[in-house]
Design brief:
The protein has 393 residues and is an alpha+beta fold. It is built from 12 helices and 17 strands. Strand 10 (218-222) and strand 11 (228-236) form a beta hairpin. It comes from Pontixanthobacter gangjinensis.
Length: 393
């Protein structure tokens, strides 16, 4: 993906669960969940009419604007879900600008709802953090913001059998002997592995805030002169993401009761600050490191290469939800109910009906996203006739 805005759910290591067989299907055949790698395999069933969703005008207006921005991608990208083809979206994309004064009518006219698997959804939240930073290293502002290093490559390690060379080669580097080896871990980078490369284009004041900005995948640096630098995801070191909230939960550090911390971003940050040595070791368990680039424009970029929008953009697993498709959420967290547009993804967003809602920037965004954990139902809005075509009816 071009811009990974990773979920706060990665901190908590929570995931949706439940059957992936559609409600309308016959008695299920036992299937290994690891084999369910697309919406087609999960099962697709018709949902209620779009007219019956009770779509609010402001919500639909914002979603329509985001949908229009997504249309160029919808009309050219291959849909990894197997649900749609680029030409399926053409009629809706062509008509969309004419409905700016009546967005609910647009969605009712051109879309039908589909339930992927059971539709049992789990949603978290992410935001664009703003932290203190500087362009040049100075006392109290010394956490490097690195661009992509030129020795980060994709190469198969020596001895990899041809049969194992499926998909893309892993990220790594070439060592002194000419062999492909894993790239530097978070701990190695923090200890100076990239110190003399000249690729630090900015610095952050607080290592804890910078760690969480990396989890978000983009953010803002408030510079000493009062200006703001927006930074966005440019690459990653190839090491897997570890949700430290999940580790803390396993260790009995999160939850209710004496000595425990809330299972939210705020609670996790409190633990790290109050226990600096243990907190540093905990953060280093997440070996993934994010490289950044300076951004221009009016918002952080999502995986489609367009800005994500507050309360309109949602991160999805593109194997189960087409990029650019509208998504209807009905959760036990009412603030996240309504229409969203799939414009992003993230390292922790895996599986059918797994979503990460975007809340913009500012303290309210931080508060909502940091505590967002909602369960309920999800519907995908697809061009009319899609479900019938998929089911051969």
């Amino acid at each position: 993906m071009n811009q990974v805005l990773v979920a706060l759910s990665g901190l908590l290591l929570l995931s949706a669960c439940g059957s992936l067989i559609p409600e309308s299907a016959p008695p299920p055949i036992q299937i290994d969940p690891a084999t369910i790698t697309s919406a087609r395999l999960a099962g697709v069933a018709s949902g209620p009419s779009v007219a019956g969703l009770g779509m609010a005008q402001p919500d639909a207006d914002a979603a329509l604007s985001a949908f229009i921005e997504s249309c160029p991608s919808l009309l050219r990208r291959e849909d990894r879900t197997g649900l749609t083809r680029p030409e399926d979206w053409r009629e809706a994309c062509t008509a969309a600008p004419a409905y700016r004064s009546d967005a609910p009518a647009f969605f009712k006219t051109y879309f039908e709802t589909a339930r992927i698997g059971t539709g049992e959804a789990f949603a978290t939240g992410y935001f664009e953090p703003e932290i203190r930073g500087c362009r040049m290293r100075s006392p109290g502002c010394e956490v490097p913001v690195y661009a992509i290093p030129n020795d980060l490559v994709r190469e198969w390690p020596a001895g990899t059998a041809e049969a194992e060379k499926t998909g893309r080669a892993p990220l790594g580097r070439i060592d002194e002997s000419g062999n492909a080896v894993p790239y530097y871990t978070r701990a190695e980078i923090e200890d100076g592995a990239l110190e003399d490369r000249g690729i630090a284009f900015a610095y952050a004041a607080d290592p804890v805030e910078m760690f969480f900005l990396q989890i978000q995948g983009s953010g803002r640096l408030k510079l000493d002169d009062g200006s703001v630098m927006r930074i966005g995801y440019a690459g990653q070191n190839g090491h897997s993401y570890t949700g430290i909230g999940g580790v803390m939960r396993e260790r009995g550090l999160l939850g209710d009761g004496p000595g425990k911390y809330p299972g939210s971003m705020q609670g996790i940050m409190s633990y790290i600050r109050e226990n600096p040595a243990e907190g540093k070791a905990l953060m280093r368990l997440n070996e993934s490191w994010i490289f950044f680039t300076e951004l221009t424009g009016d918002g952080p970029l999502g995986s489609l290469g367009i800005p994500v929008r507050r309360e309109s953009s949602v991160a999805v697993d593109p194997r189960f939800v087409p990029y650019g498709a509208p998504v209807w959420l009905d959760l036990d967290r009412d603030v996240a109910d309504g229409l969203w547009i799939a414009q992003d993804t993230g390292g922790a967003i895996k599986g059918a009906n797994r979503f990460d809602t975007f809340w913009g920037a500012g303290e309210d965004a931080r508060e909502i996203a940091g505590g967002m954990s909602g369960r309920g139902q999800a519907l995908i809005l697809l061009p009319k006739g899609t479900v019938k075509r998929l089911n051969g009816k």
